[in-house]
UniProtKB/TrEMBL annotation:
This is Uncharacterized protein. It comes from Granulicella rosea.
Length: 90
């Protein structure tokens, strides 16, 4: 079995508070994530090794966005997402 047999994947967006490094304005931004939630149980065709791997597996999410556009109309510069990890366990 592959790791992807262990989870259900879904694209979600979450709101984060970010500060633009150019104009220093704080704002709420929607950031896209790929959420990989562990299945309730491992598939029928799993062998013992798969079961052991599945037991240790944790749900996690991967950030899809790297850049944001500032919402301040006098700035509107693009900036890199900083301070939020690109992979997070849930
Ligand atoms: Zn800005």
């Amino acid at each position: 079995m592959e790791e992807r047999d262990f989870y259900d994947e879904r694209a979600e967006s979450r709101t984060h508070t970010m500060t633009c490094p150019h104009c220093r304005q704080e704002g709420q931004y929607e950031i896209g994530w790929l959420v990989r939630r562990k299945k309730n149980q491992v598939g029928r065709n799993a062998d013992e090794r798969d079961r052991a791997k599945f037991a240790k597996f944790q749900s996690y999410m991967v950030r899809r966005d790297d850049m944001l556009g500032c919402k301040n109309i006098r700035c509107r510069k693009r900036f890199e997402i900083a301070g939020i990890q690109s992979v997070a366990f849930i």
